[in-house]
Amino acid sequence: MPPLSLDFPVLLGPVRVETSFTATELLVRVFPDEWSVTKLEPLPTPAELAALDAYWVALWASGGSPVREQAAWHELVARIPAGRAAWLLRGRQPSNPNDRPLGVPAGTAVLVVVSPQAVAANDRPPTIAYWTAVWQAHGDRVRLRNAEIALVAAVGQNQTRATAIKALRPSGVDAAPATPGDNVTIAFLVLPTRDAGQIAAQSWTVAATATLLPDRFTVFGYVGGTLVFSQTGGLVRQGLAVSPDPKEPTATQLKIDETAGTLSVPPALRWLTDFTEAVAAGMGLRIPLQDSFRNGVDRLVVLGLREQATPAQTATALGGLLSDQLHSPAGLSLLPQGTPTNNSEDQDAGQDPTAEADAAQSAAARSAAAGFAAAAVDWTTKTDGQWFAELLGLDPAVLAGVPNSDGTDRRDARAAQTALWPATSGYFLPALLNGGLTADQIEQTRQFFVANVSGRGPLPAVKIGRQPYGILPTTVFSRLAFPAAATHRTALNAVLKQLAQRWHDALAHVADLDAPSADPHQTLLDILALHPTSAEYHLLADAAHPLATPVVDDRPLSETDLVRPYTTDGRDYLTWLAESDLSTIGGQQGFTDDVPPATLLYLLARQAVLAASTGTVPAELVQALTFLAGLSTAKLERVFAEHVDCATYRLDAWRLGLVNERLAEMRYGPDGTGQPVPGLHLGAYGLLEQVTRNTDPVDMVTVPTDLTAVFGTGQIPHDRNNAGYVHTPSPAHARTAAVLRAGYLANADPAKANVFEVNLSSERVRLAMTIADGMRQGQALGALLGYRFERGLHDRDAGLDTFIAGLRLKFPLRANKIDDTALAPDDPAAPTSIEQVEAGNVIDGLALLRHVNALRDGGSPDDYPFGFTDLTPASPTQIGHIRAEVNSLRNTLDAVADVAVAEGAHQALQGNAERASAALDAYAKEGLPPAPSVVETPRSGTTLTHRLGLQLTPGLDPDHGAPLFGHNKPRAQAEPAVNDWLPEVLPKPETVAALVTWHDEDGHAHDHTVSQADAGLSPIDLLWALRPTDQAAMTDLDDRIIGVVVDQVKPRPDFELHIEYTTQIDGMVTFFEVSPLVAAVRTLLTTARPLRQSDLVPAAGPADVNRAADDAVTLPKNRPTAVLASLTSLISDVAKFVADLGPLYPDGAPPNRTAVLNGIDTFPTRYAKLAVTAGGFGLLRSGWGELAQWRRGVFADVLAAVAVLAARMAAALAAANALLDQYEHLPNSTPNEPRFQLLEKAERLLTTRPKPRDDTPAHMRTRVRNLRNTFTNNVNALQQLAGTNRTALSDLLKDVAAILPPAEFDPQGLDLTPFRDRVVVFGADLLARGRKLADELAARRDAATTALQLYDQAVPGPDQVRAGTDALKALLGEDVLSVPEFTPPAAVIDQWRKARNDSDKLVAHLKPARDFPVDDWLHGMARVREAPRLWEQTVLLADALLGPGGLLGVSILDWTEPQLSPIQLPFVQGDHWLGMEFAKDPKLPDQLGQDRLLFTAHYATGLSGNRQCGLLLDEWTEVIPAERETTGVAVHHNGPDSEPPQSMLLVVPPVRVTGGQWAAADLVDAITETFEMAKTRAVEPAHLGAATDRRTDR
Q: Which superkingdom is the protein from (predicted)?
């Protein structure tokens, strides 16, 4: 080897070594480790740029708050490794750093406007004003529109500027405010657009390469400590590829030829798979076997050095490599002490993410300030990063920006050594050695100990990527020597060498995996249970019991909290020790409640102060205590334990102290105060022990026929111990299977064949899933097993049911489970029957199994009766049946356990520790087990997005289709497109009707047909009017129908009208018959949403969905304007009604009864018509129906009163006629008196005012007969009113009033006042209703007017649509149907048209096998989805009404069924529909190569115009499974399990020789001796056989 100067240490990085024996050679392969690999991506990716921009936005938004600045940094480093983030940030700086807002008051939100160029100066004020107003609106739509109005005004009505300002949407404006309020600041951030050439096209652009590898590798083999071979390989290829190259040509890319079964490896990577290539690359060596090592070697050492570079060149190259690793996605950082290197229940491996982010932020800030390069010369101010750089001979600037490089772990350790030395080694060296050392020797030992002996070493650990490395200074300890003048070091080295032999002898007592052991598992656990430092401390007098005294503080240890205050003035005890005088310290004065701390650290530190002080506390001690006072309690515990360990059993720390001192001399000169000397040598090393040949027998077998293409036709070796492979549905499952299989194989024991056995057969998985489902429903595991057991007994044999009751009593599910309350078996109150235990109970299957298994494990019979003597006897056959069910129960429980274990392993291997524990806890603690994913088969595929739509005719006028000079109804004006389309599926209004029937006074039947047209209902009105389940809606329809009859036919008011909805009408359909169709159409339309242009673009695919184009929507203003005009007309009519009726009811005066009575027919009719019109606006109120009912009541009551009067008078008339008839039949001889008496009786019946007797009976008879005739005429007139043909109540009242007889005819008479009062009261009620209706209409008009004003002020687009919709909702109610129109981008409409024109060809491949493929598709979808079902129902019902043979008897040419047309996007010429069977055309391109959109719609018109409108009825997705899936195979492969060491060795020369050169033997010996010493690190005091008074347990 070329000369390498001894003036520089050699840094040896680890490599991984693999070996393999052939018949004649030992093959050695070397693989570089993470430390030498560079993965630097020189350019940022788009995702990284987005993260950087998000950081700058968050930094601007922080407003100068340190907490929010830190949060911004944490978010950045969560997305990009810290070192790379800081590096990329330096190349991604805002153009306006001076605009960053600082000092923003708390509670003020900062909204950040981000733009690639600075916002124009004249646009800044309106931008600030607008977005401030938007923020302060807090979502209030009125205030948001006011903000837009103000913006348009601020830019001088320039819509282009307004739109541009609105496009500058600040970051944070859509987020919920952290502090609610109106305080806000608008900040501007300019992030220039980066050139496309400066952005990585993908996240992986370069191959990972190994750099700084040795020039050559030499392999040394040892047998029994004797070197048996040494061989050097070829030159190592520099820049060695260790990963595929994304730029590799397609022809040579890494791929598998599945036909031939061959693996094609790129040339640069063949050294990894081809040993010959590895030899050529210098990474493989062939060593001919000799007898001395034919069966293996005890130790194999690999060593390589970079021999052609100078130390300075090597230092520069290593610094560059570290910088590249820092800036790479893998990252680089120093690791502080206390960082866990493995997962535990309390903490995950690696540094806490928050702490690491904070360390990275500190390093980045220090790097930006260029402060790291200012080298400190004193150990009190040097950082770990500076120690790292100087001791390795690197430029300290290399460590700039490295996380944790500003740590002080070495300073902290030295402070502890300094502070505690007087109480430990400084005490027992003179005391125990009894004067064996002089004071000078002790002082030299102290200085050596404080400066060089450390439990943590002089250099911090470094993490490269995910791999941590310790850097261990070392040497050839056996040849370590010092100059003759260094008598102390020479003597110390000699003592340490002697002690090393004792430590070496103690290795026999250290747990060793290679040593024979009766319980290898326990040996492994003993090794894993080792602590790096002391965990327990014992008193000399009680070595068996650890001290309960806290080590540092009486609170739990914390990585952030300092020692709590112990003194009355709020100081911790370390500060108290540093600042107090000796008398205070000796008297322990000043502590709270005069109680001094009881911690070990305090006791030792106080003892150290007292022991080292001779009047005053030494300044060195004060300084060390001050440093310690600033450490967290967790750090103090670590440095305390390390000091105690170094003072007791850590011999390795003392021996390495000599190495540390030698290294310091090389870097800083003999006195340690010089400038650090840069430069180092670099190499690599690897080490294996017990490299032996595998002597297991191998069988030669013939190659199976299906594998001859891969292995040929000859015989191949077969390992009889190989367990084969497990084919799994995914790589994740393969990983799980590998771990479970490895666990089984590692513990396979013929005596216990089922140990670690996991059987996941389909049957067992189904069993386990059944149990898991029951547990998720709240059932206990014991109950579920019990159910299965009882059911099994019942199904197996009918006679087995008799045993269930007894077993329930022995193994009850719930009763008698609590020991404190359970009754003893001999207690008289103990249950003796199952009825006494619990009704509906079941056997606790889990308890039964545990009992039976305990019998089996204890060697007792485990058959029925299971050790009980009081169970029902069973025959041998029955016992066999019960045994079979118990075994079935065991199998079920074992299946549950297997699934639980497999799920726990599966989740743990995917990093889901919480789900893993949840899966296991659910079964162990009978919780609710999550659905196991280990039994699920992951599938991939192509997503098909289905959308079902209805395209409508855009651009229709609100009065489209209205009569000449007429207007449509309000709902039709609001949505003319839907109203125009509905006749395609609904019958014509003239053909939908209801029959109204009534009977006249003679009982004769009458009827009248009222059609939808008669009722004034447009097609869209019918959707709201015909709702059988909505009472209010049906009342409105009833009113309309009744109103038509009352207004047009005018039946007498007392005739009761009946609406017969179900009675069929020739040539028409009834409302009842059409109601299912109307219900389907109504639900279909009201549950849909307006169609958008983005609905015509696949959600995933090569083209991004342009959501911004969805803003190109409009709702023509003429729609709400037309509805408002109709409402205004109604308001005018209502106002006229109130104006006409109101004066008849003057305030403070009686109503004008005459006028009211005269208008009682006119006013109700007018109001009813107004109510019907208001119903068209969604204002449902009683009208014609209530009017008819009220009129019928008054009309009938008047006629009834007249009938009563007529009947009473008729009775009097009949009696009078009888008397008169009697008079006529009197004999002629009858005297006058009886004659007068009869005539007077008759007169008194006919009048209340009889006259005196006439002079003769004959004269009186004539007068009475005339009176009778007049009376008769009045009775006849009253009776004739029963058949009146009057239809007006006012006319009836006039007629009755006109024919009422004089008062002298009837003593009671008929008073019409009550009836007239009812009329007056009803008139007042109509007036109140009219006024209320006027108020409601006015409120709607005002709200609509306001919304239309906002419409005029809003920017065209969604804001105008919202304003227009708000106006329509104000006019017609919240359930208004309104479909905006949209203008798709040119590319979208072009694709739509092409696909629409190609629709018939799209399904051509499905014919003639399917006559109507789209209908078949619809019928299938209708079975599972609601909207397709409604469309299907609409079409079927429409056909039943309108189609040929339908109820309306329409001919085949009069109606066409609405067709669905499928299209497929993105449009592909010659495409085939994916909604049904796929086309089997090999010439087709891969239709499933990308996600597709299947848009199936009915088109009311063509796509000729650019403006469109429609409804999206439904959308759903389905995944077409991929033809190919990536599965996994877990293979039983006995591959190399060697790993590289996790330590870099910094080798210093054992002897300083001026001008000396490094020898390979020195480095090899340094490696081997370091590994030997590393073993002694596991030696504990107990292994040394020390007396108990020296014991310090760990």
A: Bacteria
Map residue 935 onto helix, strand or coil. coil
Residues 714 and 37: beta-carbon distance below 8 Å? no
Mean pLDDT by 10 residues, the chain (1594 residues): 87 96 94 95 93 95 92 91 90 94 91 94 94 89 83 87 90 75 92 91 91 96 94 94 92 81 88 95 96 94 95 96 93 89 55 77 66 63 94 93 92 96 90 78 94 94 92 96 93 93 89 79 78 84 78 93 95 95 93 94 94 87 95 95 93 96 94 90 96 86 83 84 89 92 81 80 91 87 90 87 89 59 50 41 89 88 90 91 92 91 90 82 77 87 92 94 89 94 93 93 91 93 84 78 91 91 90 92 94 85 66 92 95 94 91 89 91 90 86 89 89 91 89 89 87 90 91 89 86 86 80 89 92 94 94 85 94 92 92 92 89 93 95 93 79 77 91 88 75 93 92 92 88 86 96 92 96 91 58 37
Beta-carbon contacts of 1221 under 8 Å, excluding residues fewer than 6 positions away, are none
Angle at 1090 between CA 165 and CA 138, to 5 degrees: 40
In angstroms, the CA 428 to CA 647 distance is 10
Distance CA 1395, CA 951 (A): 14
Closest C-alpha to 1230, from 1222, 1240, 1218, 1241: 1222
Whole-angstrom CA distances from 950 to 554, 624, 855, 1304, 1461 are 74, 82, 73, 79, 10
> What gap in Å lies between CA 1123 and CA 366, rounded to an integer?
69
Q: For every residue of 786-834, which 3-state class applies, written as one string?
A: HHHHHHHHHHHCHHHHHHHHHHHHHCECCCCCCCCCCCCCCCCCCCCCH
Q: Are 958 and 1123 in contact (CB under 8 A)?
A: yes
Tell me if residue 782 falls in helix, strand or coil: helix
- Number of Cβ within 10 Å of residue 1551's Cβ equals 15
Number of H helices, E strands in the chain: 50, 35
List, in sequence order, every beta strand (DSSP E) within 512-551.
Answer: 538-539, 542-546
Residues 287, 229: contact at Cβ < 8 Å? yes
Pair type for strands 332-335 and 296-305: unpaired
User: What three-state secondary structure class fits 577?
Assistant: helix
Which pLDDT belongs to residue 834? 39
d(CA 860, CA 864): 12
Q: Angle at the Cα of 785 (from 862 to 728), degrees rounded to 5?
A: 105
CB atoms within 10 A of CB 679: 19
Q: What is the C-alpha to C-alpha distance for residues 951 and 402, in angstroms, rounded to an integer?
A: 61
Query: Does residue 428 contact residue 481 with C-beta atoms inside 8 Å?
Result: no
- Which residues pair with residue 1261 across a beta bridge? none
Give helix 876-909 / helix 731-746 axis angle, nearest 10°.
120
DSSP class of residue 485 equals T
Question: Which distant-in-sequence residues (6+ apart) come within 8 Å of 1289 by Cβ?
Answer: 1053, 1160, 1161, 1191, 1194, 1195, 1198, 1319
The torsion defined by the Cα of 1281, 1287, 1293 and 1299, in degrees rounded to 10, comes to -30
Which residue's structure tokens are 């044999």?
797
For residue 1404, the tally of other CB atoms under 10 A from its CB is 12
The per-residue pLDDT for 827 is 53
Residue 1371: which of 967, 956, 973 has the closest Cα? Answer: 973
Q: What is the DSSP letter of 1048?
A: I
Residue 947's closest CA among 1512, 476, 287?
1512
Q: Is the dihedral of CA 685, 690, 695, 701 positive or negative?
A: negative
User: What residues pair up with 988 in beta bridges, in sequence order?
Assistant: none
Question: What whole-number distance in Å separates Cα of residue 699 and Cα of residue 1546?
Answer: 48
